[in-house]
Amino acid sequence: MNTELAAAEVSRHKCLIYEGDPSGQLPVVLPLLQDGLERNWRCLYLGSPELVRMVDSALTAHGLDTAAAQQRGALLLSSDRSHLKGGRFDPAEMIAGLCVLIDGAVRDGFAGLCATGDMKWEFGDDRNFERLLEYEARLEQVFREKPLRGICQYHRDVVPAQAIRDALVTHRSAYVGSLLNRDNLYYIPPELILETQDQQHDARQGEWMCRQIIRVLDAEQTRDQALTALRESEAHQRHLAEQLAEMNRDLERRVAERTTELQVAVQQLEAFSYSVSHDLRAPLRSIGSFSDILADDFGSALGHEGKSHLDRVRSSVQRMGELIDGLLALSQVAKSELHRTPVDLSALADEVTREVHEADPGRSAKFVIHRDLLVVGDRRLLRAVMANLIGNAWKFTSGRAVARIEVGRNGSEAGQPAFYVRDNGAGFDMQHASKLFGVFQRLHPQEEFPGTGIGLATVQRIINRHGGRICAEGRPGEGATFYFTLPGSDDPHSLSASPAAP
Q1: Phi and psi of 448, rounded to 5°?
Q2: What is the dihedral of CA 188, 189, 195, 196, to 10 degrees?
């Protein structure tokens, strides 16, 4: 239902003034007829056969079964001119016939008559418009007294200018094109138009003119208030724009400061990496070397307990070396430049699974690697992702009779392909899932599953640098699944110009 027609109406008697192609009437006429049919009004369209066909086709195109509506008497599409006497328009004859149609619609169970038509067709080919003012004034009275809704159509290209002026003064509401003026300031009540000139008529006309002047003044006051509000709004907008510009300048200054701080932090991180690589490795190598000498030259003198302590020292030296390697790898992820090329994750997974199985050939395992897992990224870093995820899966399935590790694709997220690495290993409690990707964070004892706690943090940083994200699901004793997203090879914004293949 048309929302504009559903709103409170100033008048049910409207006119439409339009120009150009006859189809210009449709945006106003169709909603009137459709709304009337929905509200159980009998709907009448009166016009030339060409216009009738046009309206019929338009209603059909909007999903209305016009044949069925006409058959049940709800829709009348007519080119009848029986109201014309000898080809001349007779207001009384036309209004009498219209009243018969209204009463007939009510008698047949309809709420009333909803009528619209082309006024040139109604008035005849000789353009008999000299009685238009009388007709529209009398018609206004019918609209007040009977259940009638309607729009009188005036095509400016074929209707005389005087007829347009007469139409405006006799309609409280008027469409100009598709724009509705609900309360027309040019309107004159029918009693003032139809009354004969006398003293009482002049008094009523003067009173009406005074009311119109007041309405015009009220409209001007409303316009002035709107203009004042607009000027205030524009001033407020300018003030907000100035504030925003100042905030942007301040933001740019702070960004520059933070960029400088970040550059300093990066330099400090590189210095720290250098320190870890050189300053810590030297004493660690010394500890390892002296431990080996003790074991080889003085092992028999240490006794069982001494050997046990020495083994723990050597094990700690080895673990410390692994931690240093992990930290260096993590720092390299943060500062190394990405070299994006098409990469086949399936091929990388095949390489890694073959390596882990060759390192421990005594274990029974089933590897399920889906084919054509194609992405765009840095092959070296993405291989580190597969090595860490599959290596973790291999480690945490060590207690299974048959380890099952699967690498596949699981649809897409935010336009990026989503992949997963799933195992049937030890799993984990989801309450601790937030710790998985933290540096040195571990959910299992070192004695049960050895490791540095750096691998998953490295994986997360690599995925993030590629513009993806990673998360995990698991249950204790039921395995774990790591999901991650990466740009796909079918994403034209991610493809590198480099032809390098995995």
Answers
A1: -80, -50
A2: -10
